[in-house]
Design goal:
By secondary structure, the chain is of the alpha/beta class. It has 2 domains: about 1-195, Rossmann fold (3-Layer(aba) Sandwich), CATH 3.40.50; about 235-415, NAD(P)-binding Rossmann-like Domain (Rossmann fold, 3-Layer(aba) Sandwich), CATH 3.40.50. Helix content is about 40%, strand content about 15%. The chain has helices at about 10-20, 35-40, 50-60, 95-100, 120-130, 155-160, 170-180, 195-225, 230-235, 260-265, 275-285, 285-295, 325-335, 355-360, 380-385, 400-405, and strands at about 1-5, 25-30, 65, 75-80, 110-115, 145, 165-170, 190-195, 305-310, 335-340, 365, 390-395, 410. It has an 8-stranded mixed beta sheet with strand order 3-2-1-4-5-6-7-8, with helices on both faces. Bound molecules: ligand SAJ. The site of ligand SAJ has 19 residues, from helix 8.
Amino acid sequence: MKICVIGLGYIGLPTASMFASAGCEVVGVDKNPKVIDALNKGQIVIEEKGLAELVSKVVKDKLLRGSLVPEEADVFIITVPTPITAQKKADMSYVISATESIVPYLRKGNIVILESTSPVGTVDELMVPILRKSDLKIGEELYVGHSPERVIPGQILEELVYNSRLAGGINPISSEKIANVYKTFVKGEIYLTDSRTAELCKLAENTYRDVNIAFANELAKICEDLNINVWEAIELCNKHPRVNIHQPGPGVGGHCIAVDPWFIVEKQPDNANIIELSRKTNDSMPGHVTERIKQILTGIDSPKVTILGITYKPNVDDIRESPIIYLIDMLRNDGINVSIYDPHVENYDGNEKDLITAARDSDLLVLGVHHNNFKELPFKELAEIMRHKNFFDTRNFVPTRDAEDAGFSCYLLGNN
Ligand code: SAJ
């Protein structure tokens, strides 16, 4: 089987490599010459555990190669980005141009699969009209559908193989053909459905988490007002056999959970009430943390705040949609001097090389992201170089005993 994968990002390149390692002939297509040059040398330009080794091997074995343009194949897989616009609508331009780019190469019996997370109706309303230009009968001579991935960054290669996935065709035969394509390397269950259901499921899975995190964040605000520790309350609630409340925090980041719910709201603005409110609740958290910080700093002249961790989640280098970046902007807009320390991030303006430099003369240390390296902070040393000894944990991550022993006043999100 020959496979053409369009878009070699965080999903496309690992997927192309997995097909290649299963013995398929794979052509990876990307419009960025840097990505293609690197690939043809067996190298990669993104970070993902195990990917560099895998790509190097399959390129050497001549099973995977890069190209700036598509070519004839048995299967075309589209894994291009679907970013969100300022108006909170899906930008489908990459899906449209990728679909148009394969039309000249389509032949009878080919399979076209959209993997990109997309609003409901993308396959049947947006792609199929473009694919008709091939003059092939859709669903009879050209099989089309959606098969979204469910992988978490950091464990992509493993999860591609072992997670279950959906094969949603525009007709039953398309679903079966798509399932058979993935069976070459997927060991998880593959469930057949239609393309619209598959599109909705992908969005609903991430929305499920967003809504549940919003509930936790709302509880955090409620507990602050009622003088209850939300973390303790959630832990106790979760002792109930059918309750699983998520964790509050300074907001939801990343390019999936903070984005996908808007694709449902876009198509169903009148019905998607809880979904939209949850998105807004989670987006309100950097502002809420800003207010708490300003309270802590009351009475301090020209305050300086030190933020620990700026990524969207712990132990990664990814700052896309990170709520901590919004928090920093808000604090700076309020005239607060902000210093930053995140050992996972390179090349971010103002990120200091070490904790002590960042915290010198600071009035407040804020834990933004719970990287493992922050579990044990040197509070004794920090007490000597900071102007005021305040510590605010937005993740309930750092045990406060050491901080209190060193004379720090400790504050916690979701607790007053
Ligand atoms: N977060 C909380 N409280 C929680 C859990 C998470 O505030 O209880 C925050 C995190 O701090 C982070 C954000 O949510 O800012 C999202 O992080 P994540 O690790 O939960 O998820 P992602 O965005 O890295 O990956 C998600 C996954 N989806 C689900 O778990 C339903 C992954 O399986 C998807 O494949 C991926 O989105 C995607 O590509 O859609």
